[in-house]
Specification:
The chain is an alpha+beta fold and about 230 residues long. It has five helices and eight strands; from the N terminus they run ββααβββαβαββα. An eight-stranded mixed beta sheet has the order 1-2-3-4-5-6-8-7, with helices on both faces. α1 crosses α2 and α3 packs antiparallel against α5. The chain starts with 6 loop residues before the first strand and ends in a 14-residue tail after the last helix.
């Protein structure tokens, strides 16, 4: 399905997650872990290797495109994110629908809808603008290269900081699915769902580009940290 790709910006480069990232992923994941209450983050080299192996299995099955998040300032891996829940609406109508299966040649297929998720950043990268630019790069690729109709995001309903970060992107809250799944802490969690539609993308792009420009201005003035606080992973 969609081939692995590199997405590059001013502060961040998203490169295909690969086994050689294991050491750097482990290092990023073993920093201060107080912001990782709601998302799985590798805590050792063994855990990082398993994390990458599972992500690549999902990629091989056409279910995800995982990335290593790399800071362009120093070349360090500072986290991970991915496209997932790829869905295809082309071809003859089949009912019941079979989600995630493209019509025609899977090597040339592009999705009609996708989700951005499994995002986490090391504490030092939170609040620096890396998260916002990574979202800008991914959303731009989804809407302008793939031509998707919708990009969705989700967060544990208890993760108010992550939900606020998603809302600052301009995404619309579709509601909260109660008792949706088991959370990382073992509790039954409710999940808040968000989306951006293709007709909303120009507005969202403007928000993200304005935030990026403001971040560059703060950086030039020596105040690069986002005054609203760090963006906690979904």
């Amino acid at each position: 399905m969609p081939l692995p790709l590199v997405l590059s910006g001013r502060t961040v480069r998203l490169e295909p997650l690969a086994p050689q990232h294991a050491v750097a992923i482990a290092a990023a994941g073993t920093e201060d872990r107080t912001t990782y209450a709601f998302t799985p983050v590798p805590h050792s080299l063994d855990a990082a290797e398993i994390y990458i192996e599972r992500a690549l299995a999902d990629q091989a099955a056409g279910r995800a495109l995982p990335f290593a998040v790399v800071s362009t300032a120093d070349g360090r891996v500072v986290g991970s994110t991915r496209f997932l829940e790829l869905d295809y609406w082309q071809g003859p109508l089949v009912w019941p629908a079979v989600p995630g299966v493209p019509y025609g040649d899977p090597l040339t297929a592009v999705p009609d809808a996708a989700e951005i998720g499994n995002t986490w950043l090391s504490p030092g990268a939170q609040g620096t603008g890396i998260n916002a630019e990574a979202k800008l790069l991914m959303l731009r690729h989804a809407f302008e290269a793939w031509g998707v109709r919708r990009v969705s995001m989700r967060a544990d309903a208890r993760n108010l900081r992550s939900r606020a970060a998603i809302e600052r992107l301009g995404a619309t809250c579709e509601g909260v699915r109660r008792a949706h799944s088991r959370g990382l802490d073992g509790a039954v969690r409710s999940t808040a769902f968000y989306s951006v539609l293709d007709e909303e993308w120009p507005m969202v792009r403007g928000i993200l580009e304005a935030r990026q420009a403001a971040g560059m201005t703060r950086a030039a003035a020596g105040t690069a940290t986002d005054p609203r606080g760090p963006l906690v992973p979904a």
